[in-house]
Amino acid sequence: MPELSSPAAELQHKIQTRTAVIGVVGLGYVGLPLLRAFFQAGFPVVGYDIDPQKIALLRQGSSYLKHLGEDFVQEMARSPKFAATAEAHELARADAIILCVPTPLGKHGEPDMSYIVKSTEMVASVLRKGQLISLESTTYPGTTRGDCQPILERSGLVAGRDFFLAFSPEREDPGRKDHDTQTIPKLVGGADEVSGKLATQLYAAAIRQVIPVETAEIAEAAKLLENIYRCVNIALVNELKPVLAAMGIDIWKVIDAAKTKPFGFQAFYPGPGLGGHCIPIDPFYLTWKAREFGHHTRFIELAGEINNSMPHYVIHRTIDGLNELGKPLRGARVLVIGLAYKPDVDDVRETPAAEIIKLLFEHGADVSYHDPHVPLFAGMRRYMEYRMHSTPLTEGNVQAADCVLIVTNHAAVDWRMIARHARLVVDSRNAMAPHQPIAGAYVPA
Question: What is the set of active-site residues?
């Protein structure tokens, strides 16, 4: 490592003594757990979010991310080392500012960089010598150096000398019990050698294992590869599902059989479509960027096509099941089980349930849903008109439904009761496997 400049040496000392103030921009599923990790490591922390309701809840010690637990932020709220704010100027006192902002797709599937650009511009307005800026939002390779650095350097300060810049991809998995922010290995790549070293030292103070890589671009591309790997393999089993179903073969049993091999195979499971902020979106950041270099990412685009078709497949299977009972989908009462994109969380980002509900309404169905973790669906992006409340899961409601359509297999759902009382179950998650045979008709989807 080259000899440290005065700003770098001062920041290093603050990190080593845990006196560096850590600012986190964006207090969602990534930012809030990260803020708490640094707080628990002994650092003073400042959390920033544009949502004043989040700030108010944090100040009173209430968590708005239910999968983290009700007491997740209570210790922070009682401490003088914690501050939550919606005022950008309060980030000026932070020695390290970590950006955890959304990176969605635009209406034509192009990267929406507005959150990264606006948050970087905000940081640039308070930037001073000796600060470390780290981007965690998943994006295409070159963003940290090519997009963020020029914005920050408009301040007149120079990256690597006056301030320091790195990329460290988030690896959060909401609801996971075997790993959390502190235990998931952390990749760190700097825009220059000094920035990389300082960022590594910072994260190592709060995260159990930190893996430095040579450049920010390697770290950016690694995160995309992780998500593309999942996207492509999920698409593979989603493509096989209708093929094997036509042959009378249960794909879930096929996967169980294949995963007995101790090498060369990793189990991925089919479903009603992709959800969450990573897998449905991040691969297409690389697809878009690849075109700039004259390359066409066929695997990624094919995987997206297959995964995006799964809600339509679920609807077709629902139509098939109702037809067998002499009932058209138009006018049928369909009770959707599960709105969250994955089991046992309240996260509805990019949930396939939204598209499925939209398609059910378009086919004229009478739609309701039950989700113990999502009492209100207030709409999202393309689905703002579908404002709905969760229906109680009672024997009467299950019996009254022409079809119970399983989209998310929450552990809190009474699957045995559904097995006993549903007229028709369309199951996209294999949730009813332990309860076979069920009383009514059963359609795997």
Answer: 278
**Sheet containing 210-213, strands listed edge to edge, beginning at the edge strand earlier in sequence:** 82-85, 45-48, 22-25, 96-99, 132-135, 164-167, 186-190, 210-213
Which residue pairs, CB below 8 angstroms and at least 24 apart, start in 385-391?
Answer: 386/354, 386/357, 386/358, 386/361, 388/357, 390/339, 391/335
Give the β-pairing of 164-167 and 186-190: antiparallel
- Boundary of a domain, candidates 214, 231, 260: 214
pLDDT digits (tens, 9 = 90+) for 2-31: 667 789 999 999 999 999 999 999 999 999
Task: Confirm whether 305 is domain-assigned.
Answer: yes
Same domain membership, residue 200 and residue 287: no
Into how many domains does the chain fold? 2
pLDDT tens digits along 231-270: 999 999 999 999 999 999 999 999 999 999 999 999 999 9
What tokens were used for 411? 């552990």
Q: Is residue 412 part of a domain?
A: yes
Range(s) of the domain holding residue 75: 6-214
Angle at 103 between CA 99 and CA 107, to 5 degrees: 155
Query: Which CATH number goes with the domain that contains 303?
Result: 3.40.50.720
Residue position matching structure tokens 């799964």: 310
**Cα–Cα distance, 138 to 317 (Å, whole number):** 35
What is the rounded distance in angstroms from the CA atom of residue 410 to the CA atom of residue 345? 8
At residue 286, the 3 state secondary structure works out as helix
Instruction: Examine the fold and report which residue of 157, 182, 214 is the final residue of a domain before the chain moves on.
Output: 214
For residue 165, being part of any structural domain is answered with yes
Between CA 103 and CA 227 the distance in angstroms is 14
Tokens of 57: 């809840």
Give me 214's structure tokens: 């040579």
d(CA 308, CA 270): 12
Q: What is the pLDDT of residues 314-368, one digit of tens each?
A: 999 999 999 999 999 999 999 999 999 999 999 998 999 999 999 999 999 999 9
